[in-house]
Amino acid sequence: MTDTGFERKLILFLRLCLGWTFFYASTHQIFVPGWSVSGFLESTKTFHWLFAPLAGPATAPILTVLVEYGHLLIGLSLIFGFMVRISSFFGILLMLLYWMAHMNFPYISNHLNFIVDEHVIDGGVLALLMVKRAGHVCGLDAWAEKLPLFSRPGILRWTVA
């Protein structure tokens, strides 16, 4: 865990900002009637062969729920500092998928983003949060680590350690 007060404040700031970003995205997905991942997946360019089949009627409803509630759970996890490592891991995977889906190689989203865009930066910040044990900085991970459920070696311990 970090030692300096400034570093701890910066880690908390980054964790809360990314948590809010994920949480706010989920509110626009969960509470908008008829929102679906289909439109986004069908408009991909560089990896269209990978993403377009996922927009079909069999997979789109499942992916829509996963994206909506994935954003919500990642956001809440980061905001409350609980299980930050696992939520950061899934957040990195999501950012990688968004980066690929927005790509019109070598540009991302538009001609102003050459290879790197906000998804790469967000993924890097999430990796930093994992390494720095950000859930221990004014978060619930420090408390949860002491509970018997999380004190035994294994994946649950890793999520809050």
At a glance:
The protein is mostly helical. The protein is built from nine helices and three strands; from the N terminus they run H-H-H-H-H-E-E-E-H-H-H-H.
Topology readout:
Elements: H1 5-30, H2 38-42, H3 48-51, H4 60-80, H5 84-102, E1 103-104, E2 107-108, E3 110-114, H6 118-131, H7 141-144, H8 148-151, H9 155-160
Antiparallel strand pairs: 1-2, 2-3
Helix pairs in contact: 1-4, 1-6, 4-5, 5-6
- Tell me the strand percentage band: 5-15%
Helices and strands, in order, run as HHHHHEEEHHHH
**Sheet with the most strands?**
3 strands, antiparallel
Number of strands: 3
Mean pLDDT: 92
Distance between the termini: 10 Å
The spatial strand order of the largest sheet comes to 1-2-3
Task: Explain how this protein is built.
This protein is mainly α. Helices cover 64% and strands 6% of the residues. The chain has one domain. It has nine helices and three strands. It has a three-stranded antiparallel beta sheet with strand order 1-2-3. It is globular. The mean pLDDT is 92.
